[in-house]
Amino acid sequence: MDEYGQGRTMPHNEDAEKAVLGAILLNANALQTAMESCVPSDFYHTGHRALFSAFIAYSESQPLKTLDLVSVIEFLRERGQLEQCGGVAYISSLTESVSTSASVGVHAQIIHALSLRRQFIQMANEFSIAGFDQSQEIVKLIDDSEARLSSLAQGTGEANKDVSVGGYVMKALETLRDRMDGKDSGNLETGFDRLDQLTDGGFHPTDFIIIAARPSIGKTAFATSIIQNMIVAPRSYRVAFFSLEMSGIQVSQRLISCVSKVPLKTIRNASFSDQKDRNFNHVLMAAQKLYDTNLFILDKPNMKLSEIRATSRRLRREQHVQIIFIDYIGLIDAEMPATSKKFEQVTEISKALKSLARELEIPIVVLCQVTRDAEGDKNEPQLNNLRDSGAIEQDADMVMFLHRARKWSSDALEKDRNGDMTLQRTKVIVAKQRNGETGEFFVGFKPSTASFEMLADDYQRG
């Protein structure tokens, strides 16, 4: 009877385990083949598990000696593990289970697959027990369960897949050839040329990206401008936006204003003469253009971290989203005790979102505020100005700051795409980029549409 099998024996294959161990005793090279597919904990029988571990320990401590029956038995005797592994007679009988080591790889894969099945059964049992415990919040329970299942799914391949540098080198060369051939690199272009140049083609999969600024500079506007560039043709990316500060309607109004170039105030107040109004027609066309995109807006305020993770996994799995934006980190509920300090909560959120980006293999862009030290017009924000936690700086693969003076005179404005002097020149500071260069460039903020665009003139000039 087994603890998790409800009276049934847990899935295993004793013959496959004996065949792998026997093959190793016949041919020491079979150990490396077996280790590519399974690890000691994959063996069901305690003695088999201990013997496989001993084979690995022997090969590491005695690299110049042959792994044979006599040597292994003596090694086990010295370590006091001989009886644990079944004794001399049992170990000697293992070679009778196999005549050749040729099939050791296949048998090792069987052992690993059955180990995963046992782990799945154990998890299912634990999920069932936790489900009856009403003291646990169900959303967090689901999030934890999904994370554990995702971790188990990542172990469905070979045990040591791509651990050696050779596997990664081949992947790097494959990516290089694809880019030389003009194939999709997997990076997501932002629509801002200078930013795409600095990031070697846009935002990269698994990157945790921070966009930070003091209040009213335009963090959300910059994020929605990037989103607008991403979701419409020719890019047509699949994007998710967790808007914890604004409602979905407000986000949609901003996007419509950004695409149509009709002032946001006009759209909010419905300041059109009639349905034949030219601006109203522009709004309708923009709405149709946005309707056909793949943007998913989640606008629940004070969303819990577990909800964000669970929803992100679902959107990745069902909608195949390619990038996630979150506005903003300070509004996420870390689900920690009320006595927890703010920096502890932000640290937990930051680490969780970085881990989520790696798990889903997509970029996650998070908005963040800066401390009051960067409030002055002349004080450009720096990495140590990220509010509430130094963990954000540590976890982020890329950190961007927006900076400009609060007060503007009309003669300081820049030209927009139509040649009109409407843009407030704003500096974008790429203060950290784990896999690329840092630098700065300028974009133009258009207050009427709450959007950013590239400047008509040389936007890199100081």
TrEMBL record:
<dbReference type="GO" id="GO:0016787">
    <property type="term" value="F:hydrolase activity"/>
</dbReference>
<keyword id="KW-0413">Isomerase</keyword>
<keyword id="KW-0067">ATP-binding</keyword>
<comment type="similarity">
    <text>Belongs to the helicase family. DnaB subfamily.</text>
</comment>
<dbReference type="Pfam" id="PF00772">
    <property type="entry name" value="DnaB"/>
</dbReference>
<dbReference type="GO" id="GO:0005829">
    <property type="term" value="C:cytosol"/>
</dbReference>
<dbReference type="InterPro" id="IPR016136">
    <property type="entry name" value="DNA_helicase_N/primase_C"/>
</dbReference>
<dbReference type="GO" id="GO:0003677">
    <property type="term" value="F:DNA binding"/>
</dbReference>
<keyword id="KW-0639">Primosome</keyword>
<feature type="domain" description="SF4 helicase">
    <location>
        <begin position="181"/>
        <end position="459"/>
    </location>
</feature>
<dbReference type="GO" id="GO:0043139">
    <property type="term" value="F:5'-3' DNA helicase activity"/>
</dbReference>
<protein>
    <recommendedName>
        <fullName>DNA 5'-3' helicase</fullName>
        <ecNumber>5.6.2.3</ecNumber>
    </recommendedName>
</protein>
<keyword id="KW-0347">Helicase</keyword>
<dbReference type="GO" id="GO:0006269">
    <property type="term" value="P:DNA replication, synthesis of primer"/>
</dbReference>
<keyword id="KW-0235">DNA replication</keyword>
<keyword id="KW-0547">Nucleotide-binding</keyword>
<keyword id="KW-0238">DNA-binding</keyword>
<keyword id="KW-0378">Hydrolase</keyword>
<dbReference type="GO" id="GO:0005524">
    <property type="term" value="F:ATP binding"/>
</dbReference>
<dbReference type="GO" id="GO:1990077">
    <property type="term" value="C:primosome complex"/>
</dbReference>
<dbReference type="InterPro" id="IPR007694">
    <property type="entry name" value="DNA_helicase_DnaB-like_C"/>
</dbReference>
<dbReference type="InterPro" id="IPR007693">
    <property type="entry name" value="DNA_helicase_DnaB-like_N"/>
</dbReference>
<dbReference type="InterPro" id="IPR036185">
    <property type="entry name" value="DNA_heli_DnaB-like_N_sf"/>
</dbReference>
<dbReference type="InterPro" id="IPR027417">
    <property type="entry name" value="P-loop_NTPase"/>
</dbReference>
<dbReference type="Pfam" id="PF03796">
    <property type="entry name" value="DnaB_C"/>
</dbReference>
